[in-house]
Amino acid sequence: MAGEGRDGDWDKLKRIMEGFDQRLHRNGQKALRRAGEELASDIRTRILDGKDMKPLHGFTIEEKGSSKPLIDDGDLLGSVGLRFIEELAVFVGVHRR
User: Fold this and answer.
1) Contact status, residue 36 vs residue 81, Cβ threshold 8 Å
2) If we measure between CA atoms, which residue out of 78, 75, 88, 95 comes closest to residue 35?
């Protein structure tokens, strides 16, 4: 009973653990990219539907030709994106040039 749990295939464990840190880093980046893409998509959807935004004044709608608060020519919508600012840090929002 004293030696139970101490015997095993240590070589197999070493093979499994080889490159673990690289795999963990790569999978972290993939997860961040997916989360960032999902957030960017949510931002675009919110811009398109105008949900929970104050309605535009009638004069503004007449001048603009649309009742959508954040859409004029699509520049804002097209500028929403993501980029890695560090290895494991993602910026999601409007890119400024």
Assistant:
1) no
2) 88
Q: 7-33: per-residue pLDDT in tens?
A: 788 888 898 899 999 999 999 999 999
Residues in the chain predicted with pLDDT less than 70, given as ranges, are 1-5, 97
Q: CA nearest 83: which of 70, 94, 72?
A: 94
E strand intervals along 2-94: 80-86, 89-94
Contact 68, 48 (CB under 8 A): yes
| Cα–Cα distance, 57 to 37 (Å, whole number) | 33
Task: Report the amino acid identity of residue 76.
Answer: L
